[in-house]
């Protein structure tokens, strides 16, 4: 069972991931960090040091699009806000349902990186980069000899792991593949002593309903801000 201090770290999930379990994927300064390019387009600032966010400009390529999570700090003039994405942050708090007839769930590796990238970006473009799979376990379902559904883990904090990239090829929806992949990932992470959490756009009522059925409980609303570095 997570204590209140661990749960509170979810208010700054990227910062707490980049300064703990996933620090090997981080680059930046003592107070401002980002995931290495090609891993994940997320950056973060240490609470209390928001005025230093401008140092992020030296870590970004001209025109690069990236994301900040939570309260938006004062931004340098070279940063343009493209979009605010209010999300429900949900944490697994209840027992998983007892699923029957679960299909084989294939662990995905570097050998599958192109398939992973192509499927995720055809369904959920903009969040997944070629080497994001390195951040955690990714599981897939194959039908007709091709990868048609996937789910994986992304940000990782002490005692917590984020489920992400839960998607299905539109030609194969309605078969409960997402449900089975979530179940498999949760079983794996719970056995490892990790509590799963996730983020979902607040308007996606269908997905929220699925996550609630799987045992996730809404914790708070948290915004993902899509920004672009326009400095040349």
Characterise the protein shown here.
This protein is an alpha+beta fold and 232 residues long. The chain has an eight-stranded mixed sheet with strand order 4-11-5-10-9-8-7-6, with helices on both faces. The protein has a three-stranded antiparallel sheet with strand order 1-2-3.
Can you tell me the residue ranges where pLDDT is under 50 for at least 5 consecutive residues?
none
Output mean pLDDT: 95
Report the portion of residues in β strands: 25-35%
Number of domains: 2
The CATH homologous superfamily of the largest domain is termed Gcn5-related N-acetyltransferase (GNAT)
Over all CA atoms, what is the radius of gyration?
A: 17 Å
Q: What is the structural class?
A: alpha+beta
Question: What is the overall shape?
Answer: globular
Total of helices: 5
CATH topology value of the largest domain: Aminopeptidase
Classified by CATH, the class of the largest domain is Alpha Beta
**What is the CATH architecture assignment of the largest domain?**
3-Layer(aba) Sandwich
* Count of strand segments: 11
Question: What is the H-and-E element order?
Answer: HHEEEEEEHEEEHEHE
As laid out across the biggest beta sheet, the strand order is 4-11-5-10-9-8-7-6
How helix-rich are the residues, as a percent range?
10-25%
Counting copies of identical and different chains, the oligomeric state is: single chain
Distance between the termini: 48 Å
Sketch the major β-sheet.
8 strands, mixed
């Amino acid at each position: 069972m997570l204590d209140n201090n661990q749960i509170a770290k979810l208010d700054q999930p990227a910062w707490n991931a980049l300064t703990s379990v996933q620090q090997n994927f981080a680059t930046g300064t003592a107070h401002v960090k980002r995931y290495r390019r090609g891993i994940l387009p997320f950056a973060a600032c240490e609470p209390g040091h928001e005025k230093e966010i401008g140092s992020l400009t030296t870590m970004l390529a001209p025109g690069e699009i990236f994301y900040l999570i939570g309260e938006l700090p004062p931004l340098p003039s070279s940063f343009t806000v493209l979009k605010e994405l209010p999300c429900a942050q949900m944490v697994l708090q209840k027992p998983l349902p007892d699923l029957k007839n679960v299909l084989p769930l294939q662990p995905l590796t570097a050998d599958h990186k192109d398939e992973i990238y192509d499927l995720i970006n055809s369904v959920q473009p903009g969040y997944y980069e070629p080497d994001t799979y390195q951040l955690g376990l990714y599981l897939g379902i194959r039908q007709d000899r091709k990868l048609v559904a996937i789910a994986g883990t992304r940000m990782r904090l002490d005692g917590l792991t984020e489920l992400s990239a839960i998607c299905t090829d539109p030609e194969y929806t309605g078969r409960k593949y997402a449900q089975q992949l979530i179940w498999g990932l949760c079983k794996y992470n719970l056995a490892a002593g990790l509590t799963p959490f996730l983020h979902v756009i607040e308007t996606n009522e269908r997905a929220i309903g699925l996550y609630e059925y799987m045992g996730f409980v809404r914790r708070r609303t948290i915004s993902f801000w899509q920004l672009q570095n326009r400095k040349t």
